[in-house]
Design brief:
Aminopeptidase, Alpha-Beta Plaits, 2 domains, 8-stranded mixed beta sheet, 10 helices, elongated, disordered N terminus
C-alpha cells in the first residue's frame, strides 16, 4: 500500500466515531424479518447525515437504499447489508443486550449495518466521480424473502446495479481475515413441506380409513437416502426437520401426516434435480395408499455464485489493505439470499473473520465484534474507489 493510501485510510478511520454506539443501539432494538420498521428509522436518521443524493424508502418492505450519484456516466455499484434479527433469546448480560424478549441479533446483522453506515461516511468524504453507489439495507434476509422482494419492487428499477457486493462475518477465522471463493460461496437451500391427507377411522378398524403412516415412513427413509443418488454433480443434503402423524388419540387411526425437510446443495442445477426427485418420492409413496399430497416450500435460497471480476475486486481490496486472504475449498453449507443478486447481476459475497474464539452464528451468546467494523467498511470503500473514483492507487 502506498504512503498516500495509508494516510487516506487513517483519515477515513477517524469517521468511525459514533458507529460503535450506533451498532450497540441496533443490537438493543432488534426486529424480526419483515418487521424492521424501527430499525429502518434508526438507519435513516444515521445515514442521512452523509447527505446521499437520493433515498429510496420502503423497498421490498422496510428496506432502504441510499444513492450517491456523480451525475456522470459510469457503473452503478450496489453494496448490500441485511437488517433483520433472529427469534433467539439472548443470554448475554452486557449493557447493550437485546431489550426485546425472544429476539436478538445473533447473526451479526447489527454489525453489518454498522459497516454500511460507516461506509456512507467514507463516501461522504470522497463522493463518486463517475457512476453511482447504492447502499442497500435489506430486510428479511433470514427467511430468504427480502432480496427477491427488493429486486421485484418497482422502486428497484431506478437503482438496478451493474455490480453488487456483500459480506458476512465469520466466527472461526482470525479477526480481519477475508474469506472468498471462486464460484459458489454459499449453498442453495429450501424448506420442503409435504402434507399427506388420508382419512381417519376407528383405531380398531383402520381398514375403513386411509392412514398415511406407511407413506410417511417411506418418505422419511428415501429422503435420507436421496443425496446418494448418482444424478447430482456435487454435494447435496436432505435434513429432516419435523414429522407429525395424526393426533394423540389411541382410539383413532391417523388420517393426516406432515414431513418437513431442508433440501441443500452447492449448485443451483442440483437443487432443481433434488427438488424434483423429492417430489417424486413423496407422490409415489402416497399413491400406494391413495393418500393425497400437498407440497409447498418456504425459506428458499439460491446458491450465491461469485462473479470472477467481482471476486478480483475483493481480492484486490484485501491486498491493498494488507489483510490476510483465505481461499475456501468448498462452499459454505449455510445459505444467504444475496444469491438472488448474484443470479441476476455480477456480484460477490465474501467473509470477514470475526475471531477464532467468537461464539458461532445463531448462538444465544453471540455478539458482533466491533473491532472489525472498520475493516469491513474499508473493504467496501476500496472497491468503491476503484470503480467510481479516479483513485487507482494500490
Amino acid at each position: 500500500m502506498s504512503t498516500d493510501s495509508s494516510k487516506k485510510n487513517n483519515q477515513i478511520t477517524a469517521a468511525n466515531e459514533g458507529v460503535i454506539a450506533f451498532r450497540k443501539e441496533l443490537h438493543q432494538h432488534p426486529e424480526l424479518s419483515g418487521q424492521e420498521k424501527s430499525t429502518s428509522k434508526r438507519i435513516l436518521g444515521f445515514v442521512k447525515k452523509s447527505q446521499p443524493d437520493a433515498t429510496v424508502k420502503n423497498i421490498g418492505g422496510h428496506g432502504l437504499a441510499f444513492v450517491f450519484d456523480s451525475g456522470k456516466p459510469g457503473p452503478c455499484v450496489l453494496f448490500r447489508t441485511d437488517a433483520d434479527a433472529l427469534p433467539i433469546q439472548e443470554v448475554n448480560t452486557f449493557d447493550h443486550k437485546s431489550e426485546k424478549e425472544g429476539v436478538s441479533h445473533k447473526c451479526g446483522h447489527d454489525g453489518h449495518m454498522a459497516i454500511m453506515s460507516l461506509l456512507s461516511r467514507k463516501i461522504a468524504g470522497q463522493r463518486p466521480q463517475k457512476g453511482k453507489a447504492v447502499l442497500l439495507f435489506q430486510p428479511a434476509e433470514e427467511t430468504g424473502e427480502g432480496a427477491e422482494k427488493v429486486i421485484l419492487d418497482e422502486k428497484f428499477k431506478q437503482i438496478k446495479p451493474d455490480m453488487a457486493f456483500a459480506l458476512h462475518n465469520l466466527p472461526g477465522y482470525d479477526h480481519h481475515t477475508i474469506v472468498m471463493r471462486k464460484g459458489a460461496f454459499a449453498s442453495a437451500s429450501k424448506g420442503m413441506i409435504v402434507k399427506l391427507k388420508g382419512v381417519t377411522s376407528h383405531a380398531g378398524e383402520p381398514e375403513n380409513g386411509k392412514n398415511p403412516a406407511r407413506a410417511m415412513a417411506e418418505i422419511v427413509q428415501k429422503f435420507l437416502d436421496l443425496p446418494q443418488d448418482s444424478s447430482f454433480k456435487d454435494f447435496t443434503l436432505v435434513t429432516l426437520i419435523h414429522t407429525r402423524l395424526g393426533e394423540r388419540a389411541f382410539g383413532t387411526s391417523a388420517g393426516y401426516a406432515e414431513v418437513m425437510a431442508t433440501l441443500r446443495s452447492y449448485r443451483n442445477d442440483d437443487m432443481e434435480i433434488l427438488t424434483r426427485k423429492a417430489e417424486e418420492i413423496a407422490s409415489k409413496a402416497a399413491a400406494k395408499d391413495e393418500i393425497e399430497t400437498e407440497i409447498s416450500y418456504t425459506e428458499e435460497f439460491p446458491a450465491t455464485v461469485n462473479n470472477e471480476e467481482c471476486n478480483g475486486l475483493v481480492a484486490g481490496a484485501a491486498k491493498n489493505l494488507d489483510l490476510k486472504l483465505v481461499e475456501k475449498e468448498q462452499p459454505f453449507r449455510w445459505s444467504e439470499d444475496f444469491g438472488q443478486f448474484t443470479n441476476r447481476f455480477k456480484g460477490a459475497l465474501f467473509g470477514l473473520g470475526s475471531g477464532k474464539n467468537q461464539p458461532q452464528l445463531h448462538n444465544p451468546d453471540y455478539d458482533f465484534p466491533d473491532e472489525i467494523i472498520d475493516t469491513g467498511a474499508n473493504m467496501f470503500f476500496d472497491i468503491y474507489t476503484r470503480l467510481l473514483t479516479d483513485d487507482q492507487e494500490s
